[in-house]
# Entry
Amino acid sequence: EPEVTQTPSHQVTQMGQEVILRCVPISNHLYFYWYRQILGQKVEFLVSFYNNEISEKSEIFDDQFSVERPDGSNFTLKIRSTKLEDSAMYFCASSDSSPPFFGPGTRLTVL
Amino acid sequence: RKEVEQDPGPFNVPEGATVAFNCTYSNSASQSFFWYRQDCRKEPKLLMSVYSSGNEDGRFTAQLNRASQYISLLIRDSKLSDSATYLCVVSMDSNYQLIWGAGTKLIIKP
# Structure
């Protein structure tokens, strides 16, 4: 069964550093998403991406964040100048106009 | 008012029992509705979409009431493996910018 993969599974970084979270969506999917979930809280939409551009983004997705599809398979989320409050699970998801399938997530810990 | 509201639980239910969750949403323009399931520290997984006519998948039945803006999920003959958090999810458009409830925790006891 095809699946969304994410690397790394856990990323620890120092406050102020930049991190790149990587995702490989399901191969024939055209819509890609990033969500985050702070421990004990609900899942929050960050951004959706279609046709090599952002289609929607939330208030959370400010200038600190960027997404990129550098090649035909990867989809990345870059977080610049990380803050303590960026600590969360970051889920990548993809869809083919179906409800999204989620990857296993990257746990980001900012110290 | 929260956009998608759920009773956080936990619901402690004996194995084999029937359990039901409700969820309310605030935006009447919401287009699509889903139940996702999330195990502890895992990713959400789609359980089922919810259609206006109601739909069933094995032991699971989902219903949508657009007039009252609520969604329900019924689990019959509950199994230990049904223990999880059940997330009510609403989409405003076809781009699946999903709006999530905080989830209802279900614990099935032997």
